[in-house]
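DM from R.C. (forwarded with permission)

"hey, sorry to bug you on a friday — could you get me a structure for this? deadline for the figure draft is monday and I only need the backbone to look sensible"
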Amino acid sequence: MTSGLDDLAQRLVAAHDGGALVGPIAPELVPANIEEVYALQDRVIAHAGEVGGWKIMAGSEGEPLCAPVPANRYFEDGATLDAERHRHFLAEVEFAVKLGADLLPGQPAEAAIASVHPVLELIANPFVDRDATPRNIQLGDLQSNGAIVVGPALDRSIVEGLDTLNVGLLLDGNEVKTTDKGASWAAVVAALEWLAPHAQGRGMPLKAGQVIITGSRVLAPLDAARTVIGTLGQAGRVSARLTA
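My reply, with the result:
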């Protein structure tokens, strides 16, 4: 089974870079629980490259879901991405933190945060039939991460009203989704402090320079859009251009 999971992980990484789509997947390779989900993630990241950060859902009930993200899937604001090759199909606007120092288990998270940013996460589909693919496989595929575009640093005062911040998503200049509900700053900090020992226990500790995204605020299908813009109130924005 270990060799089977390793082969699956390699195929997932290749599919995110234009290789053959994955599926159907043998039942014995489907993670039975969250520990096995994370075991598959570990194999995926081993083939995808150095860790550039993490994704975690701040403010969720119970233990948060998370995934490491390869450094080669992070891009600067205004980047041009090949959506067809990398199979991006969904855009999310999120709030992120960038670490200025290593965050060790038991340390206060706020002291390690250098800056806060708007980000776009592009969700990708490496599967022959996504609807037929078990959720735990999708979670093991680094929660379907395809790319993260990091916008300019925001004024830190934005965190004071983070849970009611108006967030918007524009596709080809048209605003398609907005919300004024999301995780609070306290929830983000709590998620980071949960993540620090979790990441270290998996051999991927939180390091200075990493960017951690904290959960979708708004999302929508790309529907062949060529420009994607995310806004966090009047405080900042992040954009990407997609080619096909």
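R.C.: lifesaver. The mean pLDDT is 97.
me: no worries. The chain has one domain: 2-243.
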